[in-house]
Amino acid sequence: MASTTNVISSDRVEGTTVYNTAGDKLGSIDDLMIDKLSGQVRYAVLEFGGFLGIGTDRYPIPWNMLKYDTAQDGYVVPLDKTTLEGAPRYATASIPDYDEPYTRSINKYYGF
Questions:
Q1: What are the two backbone dihedrals, phi and then psi, of residue 69, each rounded to the nearest 5 degrees?
Q2: Which pLDDT value is given to residue 18?
Q3: According to the model, what pLDDT value does residue 1 have?
Q4: Distance from CA of residue 73 to its chain's centroid?
Q5: What's the half-sphere exposure (Cβ side, CA atoms, 13 Å) at 17?
């Protein structure tokens, strides 16, 4: 069911496939991190790695790096797997505080 509006529910974003610009599937969006004060989405948390959901890590990616591609019915990011493997990440059971030092480390890694 394709949407014709520019607004989407978070439950429809979660689970959406993420591709790199070469068309390779990187993973899927596991979660969104929303700024409490502005209400803006700051990060999409990409589930990447592992096998059949086992051993996957979560990679927060700045929201403005994701571009929705209607042809792929998914998001595209300008990242390859090697770059993503070196990015800040965490296990499902150890969600970090998205405090200033942590968000600064994410933004620095991606050049923001």
A1: -115, 110
A2: 96
A3: 47
A4: 15
A5: 13
